[in-house]
Structures
1.
Amino acid sequence: MSALTISQLSKSFGGLHVTRSVNLNVEPGERRLIIGPNGAGKTTLFNQITGEITPDSGSIKLFGQDITQVPTRRRAHLGMARTYQIITLFPHDTILHNVTLALLGLSPARWNPLTALKRQSHLIERAQEALEMVGLGAIAARPLAQTSYGERRRVEIAMALAQKPKVLLLDEPFAGLSIDERQDVHKCLMAIPRDVTMVMIEHNMDVALEFADRITLLHFGEVIVEGTRNEVVEDPRTREVYLGH
Amino acid sequence: MSTRIIVIAVALVALLTVPYWMPGIYYVNVASQILFYAIFALGLNLLAGYAGLVSLGHAGLFGIAAYATGYTLQLGYGHPMAILTALTIGMASMAVYAVLSLRATGIGFIMITLALGEIIWGLAYRWISITNGDNGINVQGRPEPFGIAITSAGAFYYTTLTVFLVALAAVTMFVRSPFGAALMGTRDQARRMTALGYHVWAIRFWTCMFSGLLTAIAGVLFVYYTQFISPQALDLTASAEVLLMVISGGAGTLLGPVVGAALVVVVKSVVSGFLERWNMLLGAIFVAIVILMPEGLVPGSARLWRVAMTKFAPSEKRKPTP
């Protein structure tokens, strides 16, 4: 059974067809890279996979279960996590609190109005572990406002990983990072075990190519090329549409 | 941290002994007013401060509870029944209010709540068979909790103080709980919270209900205090006044609304005795707060205190913020 199956997915905003009959099949444990020029509809595709945008037609299946009509919050409970291209974190809180919130989202304790959050030591410990995984364990207590951009990227990844997702969607995790920071994030991602299926949108080909098992090239909302890393890189259409001359 | 505990202990002792050190019954009554308005402001702060949803029609909900008390008593029922009815109707109204207004956030939420508040005011003014229109409803007597008469100013003060302390403790527990953390998450990053698995609408709805409960409780205390309810108590000015209590004291802080309530009530009822243009004074105070401490009196004073401590006591080890 595939981890993620998208069939004949279409979405238009008025006359703008942002997703045109997209088919995508991601196997469990696979690392899939989605590339394409700006405006190709990559993030829009992600937003439909997570449910933030409802497609006009087509279906999305997560491990065989049709989730096309399932609300975004339920998809998180079914094992889907994502990071954002534009970092969306909780700026007034500490790094640890950010990750704790991610864990709390999947815990029944999130409805508990009667005891202190501090008492959820189980969640806090797991949040700390997730931060160790991305190398931020030492600064867990630091307010988010006092962290660098690269650290915030890793907080995003820690939040997604803490939820122990089956499918992890990464929207440009390397965007805006310095070379050193890119290496840090790259290390985090390479360390993620194969029981997590990952789909990544990325422009930065140096780091992204190494990551990918298979690559899908989107252009004007359509899948132009799909195949293994080498197939796609060597395809002349990839050069034409994306990689340049 | 120790400074904080000392301040709270002193405040608590001061509150518990109000009838003994206040110069007269009038001032004890002012203290009662501060406390039930503080409960009201605590309720509004849950939305305006912790949920990021600024409600501009909360006086309508406050009024509904007050009218429900008055009307039930008029029908000949006893005080326990009147209070129960008021809280039930208050909560039911809040549920409708929440369902209608939670369709939007930001400016949209403000406009819907403003409109709903005005509709409730209109009903109070025009639905004469129930509300007696502009003449309002007079309420006779006060309840006797556990057989204790609370007709005297002191006894009513202690009743209000008890309810206030319970409300403050409940709000404190609520905002520090996992649910409270989730609520603040929806205020700061609603979209993110949805992706993390939270039901953002439900979190906001239940917070509205808690806010509605506190508002209804304040409404009941109000009507037993004044023994009278008229449309004036739930007009837009009343809604704006509570919102100003929250903002001037410090939205999204536990004690801000309490300090804000004290400020507004003192200027309104005490200073107005000496100064005819008390409204202007209140306005000037608000302007000063917005300029000097835009975050509100409580967090603003805490900030100035820290600055002063580090400036004038450089030898003392700098303490982290409580």
2.
Amino acid sequence: MSAVVSANFLVFCLFLTVKPLAAQDNYEIQVYGAETVAPKTTMLELHSNFTVDGSKPLPGSQYTTDGTYPTNHALHETVEITQGLTSWSEVGFYIFTSSRSGQGVQWVGDHIRPRVRVPDSWHWPVGVSLSTEIGYQRRDFSTDTWTWEIRPIVDKQIGRWYFALNPAFERSFHGESVSHGVEFSPNAKISYDFTKVITGGLEYYASFGRLGDFYSFHDQQQQFFPAIDLNVSPNWEINFGVGIGPTASTDHLILKAIIGRRFDWSGHHEHGSSLSTQ
Amino acid sequence: MNRRDFLAGCSALATASMLRSPAEAFAQEPPPDVSLTIAPLELEIAPGKTIHTIAYNGLVPGPLIRWPLGKPITIDVLNQTNDPEIVHWHGLWIPSNTDGAMEEGSPMIPSRGRQRYSFTPNPAGFRWYHTHTYAGHNLKKAAYTGQFGCFYIEPKEDAGSYDQEIFLTLHDWNGYMGGGGDASMDVSYDYATINGKMLGSDEPIRVKEGQRVLFHVLNASATLMHWLACSGHAMQVIAMDGNPVPIQESVKAIRLAPAERIDVTVEMKRPGVWILGETRDDFRKAGMGIVIEYSGQQGEPRWVAPPESQWDYSQFARPGKSTEPDVRIPLVFRSKFTGHGDFDHWMINGKSFPKTDTIALQQGKRHRLVMRNESTDDHPVHLHRHTFEVTNLDGVAISGLMKDVLVVKAKSTAEVDFIASNPGMTLFHCHQQSHMDFGFMMLFRYA
């Protein structure tokens, strides 16, 4: 195959695999609730996502068609540290890593995510917060290295049912999607409390592409995660899910787990004491 | 059927039985000793902060009723709201049809209607009166409103070894459904007040060095426990729920569950301007506090936090066993999960009110309620029309502590004894409004 034919083939492949921008991709797979972490409290979470069936390298290459490492059989571990600032604000920090056979554990990038919410005292009928996230990821793992996201969050718990909607908007500042402008990436969740401890539901993650000019369904990212939340303690957050991606641009099968632990720095008070609010 | 349905049915019956107009009904009767009017009120708890609520006689708390022990009293209550109402005379040994609980047979007061309550107040001490209606998910009704007031029944002999006597009522306002500690919903509030005012918005309590001040403290919150301290001043607990305690202990802070009352004396011997307030910063910032100002002292009120402490009823009781009961009644409290977005429902011996068993009491016999709280919430349980003796807390026998509300802590046991000496239907319930509304109630009847 001549060099010219090879180059044309690569361009053709890139065209076929054009991916909408998705700042989090499959590093942090989570639909946000409107609640923020309380002041003097830190939330430490580990997101572990294993791609059972994802993108594969080109023949003879360690990269996929868009020049990134393949996701197939990759384990993405993300450490998320969220510090509560006030009763209505927090800031989160992410460390993304990836490990795959033959590549070892690699640092992927970091994001920072401030968030504010509507205070309880406003008595809104739904929980509302606004998150913004900015960060860097290495070119080996993303076609866009500097990205920004703004994510309105609306949620509501009614009896045993829980609903959350995250209509997120993303923008690339450096990389292949810069010219795309703002892209639309909605997430949503519906769940049901089977018991006090076990909540089951469906999470939905998508990236439709640029605003006003969505990609065809084939090229959109679409993922559905049947998921379980275990409410074992107010101090722990546990979530498991299996993700199915039906479109060509989506990893087809992902296993995800989130383990979170809340640390209260306001001082330990014995339950029911004169200083305890529990 | 839940408590709301039960009350609605009873209310319709009561309305039908009161078809005479208020004027017609009372034209022939002598004037009452006390008149209470239930009506909406715009309550200014602080400059610029107004609560839309319902109150007695346009006051929060309602007017203090101070009445000699054993002297009959007549109280007329006019209901100027759009809903049926009822007034419960909390802690008094009076008949079921006057006690002010629909579940016992007291009539509701129809909207725009009037009810006359006539009884002889007994026993002496610090009692109170309050609405006893259903709120459910409407956190602007029932005990969430300003419908409460102090009722002091003067003993025949009052040593009066104090220089000032002050009534303090605690309340929380603007309730909303918030996340609970055990992952179900609880009620949270925007504001908290003492005597209807936020900290700094009321006139200070003016004292003189060397004075001994008697405080009668009532927690009229619909759902919250509160701790109070007096910035370095010790508080001598002399009575609980209006009944003298066997052992008067001095403490740095007192804890009151909803409906509990504590009488304390404070020796004023730290000249200055101080805050008597909630020990927890969040509640004090929400408004729960009042200023104590010594004569001749000026400046910003200061808060001195007491050391962290736990509340232990037994320090005010005699150690050791009380009289053995004639009858033991086991009661097990459990919750029923209804979703992280709702209040739990509550069961006594596996059943929620009105399906709870109505247990027969034997007149003149000593009954022991053997309570086991298997839930993760504390429950301030209240027995109507009787006073009980606390006889066991978590396996430790005590005696002499007489009350009508007792907190049965989460995952704990408690035992109380009472003599069945006041025939009639008798209500027993958790005094947390959201617990009683969702099943935590039962009735005793006399055999």
3.
Amino acid sequence: MQSRLSLLLLVYTLLVVISAISLYVLGEKRVDVYVSLNILAYYVSYATLRPTLTTRAVRFLNIALFVIFAIIVSFRVYEVLTS
Amino acid sequence: MNMRLLILGINVLVVSVLLVVYGILVGDSGLVGIALSTSIVGGVLVVYSTTPQDPSITALTGYSEILVNAITSTLEDLDLLESQVCVVKKSDSVLLVYSKIPCPIEVDPGVGFTGGSPYLAIPLRTLSELVESSSEAISTILERALITLLIEEYSACKSVRVEEESGFYRVYISGLVETLKQYLERPVDPYTLLTLVAASRALATRCVRLVEKRIMPDSVLLVLGVERSAE
């Protein structure tokens, strides 16, 4: 169980490092893009390497990250609609 | 709790905060983005540091083996292998009691006789960390207590569900750990023991007994009965 959790954290961290470096090299200046890609990286890692045990804290984290992601996407959609 | 992961997460959070401040000062929003992204990584590490560790279940398995072997031989000597198991709450302690009488209240720790029948009473440590709330249903309190104990503390199973049915509490425990599953057929098993102790606290009654134990391939159903009368 613990090795699976370690693998999840390793894959997630690697995805975050790759995405953050790529975005910075490409000259991306929008903060929300970094955050949303980070959250996507977390969900991809979580869906691929789902830990056998899900505690209350992890469930709360999943909900919190989803809410942040939904707010970012909603804001972007609102910007497109109003421009 | 994984302390190393917790410290790593807090360190990552601190570094990310410093990076955010530096990014704002130099006016580099890309750096602020990277710092915020790093802070989420730190938060994830902190949250995952609270998941139970392997040593918890390893310790429980080792303890169970010693307990089961010791108690089984004692029960054999007392001719109590086909006995009833219950948890009796005394004024200052909680006792796990094996006896042919359904729920003997007048028992002391150790081996003795009550109502003409031998009994074996083992003192247990009460679980003070269980949360109690008078506004919720007892089955909900018990379910939450068992989730905290069996899933979050020991990783002994994957899910716990409690239903109340005409005064009986049906506890469904599924996704059992392989190392503990072997004890289900024995007179003492950690699932029954921990469930009874949690129930004795959550139900706030003097005696909780195991009415039925149904073992399935990957789960177990425990039916608990609440006894209010003595002997």
